[in-house]
Amino acid sequence: MTVTVQEAAEALRGADHILIFTHRRPDGDTTGCAGALCRGLRAAGKTAYLFPNPDLTPRYAPLNAPLVMPEGFAPGFLVSTDVADTNMLPDSAAGFADKIDLVIDHHRSNPMFGARNLVRPEAGACAEVIYDILMALGVPMTRELAEPLYVGVSTDTGCFKFSNTTVHTHEVAAACLATGLDCGELNRTLFEVKSWRRLQMEQIIIETMEFYHDRKIAVALLRRADLDRVGATEDDLDSISALPRMVEGVQAGLTLTENKNGTVRCSVRTTKEVDASAICRRCGGGGHLRAGGATFPAGVSLDEAKRRVLAAAEDAYNESGL
Amino acid sequence: MTVTVQEAAEALRGADHILIFTHRRPDGDTTGCAGALCRGLRAAGKTAYLFPNPDLTPRYAPLNAPLVMPEGFAPGFLVSTDVADTNMLPDSAAGFADKIDLVIDHHRSNPMFGARNLVRPEAGACAEVIYDILMALGVPMTRELAEPLYVGVSTDTGCFKFSNTTVHTHEVAAACLATGLDCGELNRTLFEVKSWRRLQMEQIIIETMEFYHDRKIAVALLRRADLDRVGATEDDLDSISALPRMVEGVQAGLTLTENKNGTVRCSVRTTKEVDASAICRRCGGGGHLRAGGATFPAGVSLDEAKRRVLAAAEDAYNESGL
Question: Hey, is the C-beta of B179 within 8 angstroms of any chain A C-beta?
Answer without folding.
Answer: no
